[in-house]
Every structure is written in structure tokens, then in C-alpha cells.
Amino acid sequence: MQAFAYQNPGSVADAAKAASHGGAKLVAGGQSLLAAMKLGLAAPDSLVDLGAIAELRGITVASGTVTIGAMTTHAEVAASKDVQKAIPALAQLASEIGDRQVRNRGTIGGSLANNDPAADYPAAALGLGATIQTNQRSIAADDFFKGLYETALKDGELITAVKFPVPEKAGWQKFKQPASRFSTVGVFVSKGPAGTRVAVTGAKACVFRVNALETKLQASWDAASCNGVFVPPTDITTDLHGTGEYRAALIPVLAGRAVAAS
User: Fold this and answer.
1) Residues of the chain with pLDDT under 70
2) Per-residue pLDDT tens for 56-72?
3) Which of 7, 139, 152, 170 is surrounded by the most beta carbons within 10 Å?
4) What is the sign of the dihedral through the CA atoms of 39, 154, 147 and 171?
5) Cα(109)–Cα(132) distance, integer angstroms
6) Are 103 and 75 a contacting pair, CB within 8 Å?
């Protein structure tokens, strides 16, 4: 482990100021960043720990919206009775992330900001048409995810909360890689205020929507609507866990199962 400075600000304003300096990295749960540092893939000059900022934690449900603070852990989302009642599929997704240690340390804001191509929360955000609230602005999920580990966040900008519109129906299905529990392919479907949406993680360099499935489900919200929908394997990831063709074939299957479970 290389040397670095450590800062533990008590407010969002102080954290943003500390993070605006070149070479600084924000730490939420640290489940991805610290591992990358140990492998020599990241070498920040300083770490800005968000753990002491109370205003970044908590879950509220009001006016048809579930608002989750950025430093709320996966385990807290999974265990929340409010989330289980309003968006059961979101609670299910949180309960399936990583292992128990990851769920008790990892945070929703950290996951979205990191934007790992196989992470689960990006599928929920995009699949529900969420809004990512930062210390500077509100960003629609459709505009937030830009590419491999890339988001719309600017230097000194940090996620403060995520706002999920409560859908009429929503479902989540994940074909997981058994060692890491990341999604080989994960599909989140929803029907509600944000329209009919199908978001996929694990299959490309960045989470994405599948218009062909959305069109079918818009016409008829039924698992059978996903049968026979062809997802082109173009740009679909091929690795030791599966070919692009294999992952592409999984997408409509998992979408159908997610609809059936909604």
C-alpha cells in the first residue's frame, strides 16, 4: 500500500472542497477503491472519507419517491421495510450484492459513482428512471452513466442521494458470477412514472437499456412478451465467464423472469 493523506470531513461542503484538489479520491464504502489501490491500479494522493457525514445517510419515502442517502449501505437498503414495501425489487437487488461484508460496508452512492460494468445498482437506477442528486445538481440516470467506470460527475462533485420513483411494477433477475457475485448479466425491469424500462448490467462496458424489450413490454406487460426478442451480440462482453452471444441470449430470458416476479 502506497502512502497517502487521509481526510475525514464532517460536512458535504468540506468533502467537496477536499475532493476538488487534484489527486484526491472520495471513499464511501471503499469496497472497490481500496482493492484497486492494493493492486496498484489506483494511487490517489489523498483519501476523503465520507463516513462521518450524517446527512448522507437514511431512507425516506414521500410523494411517490424513495430517497436513499448516498452513504446508505446495501444491507440497510435490503433491510428497509419502506423499500421492501415501495419497491420490493430494489430491496431484493440490494440483498444480492456481493457477500455479507460487502453489503455492510458498500454504499449505494459509492456503487453508482464507481460504475463498475457488472455492478447491480446502475441497473436499478437506469431501470427505474432514478435521479442522482449531487452537491451541485440533479442528474437523470439516462444522463449519468457514460462508459466504463465513467459517469457525469465532475471534479469536486459528489452524490448526496438517489431518488427512485415508485413504479407500478418492477422486477430484478441476476445471473451471477459465483465467486465475485457480480452480474454476469443482470436485468431490471419496471413499469411506472418513468415509462416501461429494461436496464441491463454485466453485458457491456456500461449499463444500458434494451429498446426492443421495452417496446414489447409496453404493449403487454407479460413474461411471454420477452420470448423470441433478439438482442444483437454487438459490443456485448466476451470473457472467461461467457461469450457475447451467450450473454445476449440471457438478456430476454432474465427479462421475462423479472417480469414474472414483478
Assistant:
1) 1
2) 999 999 999 999 999 99
3) 170
4) positive
5) 9
6) yes
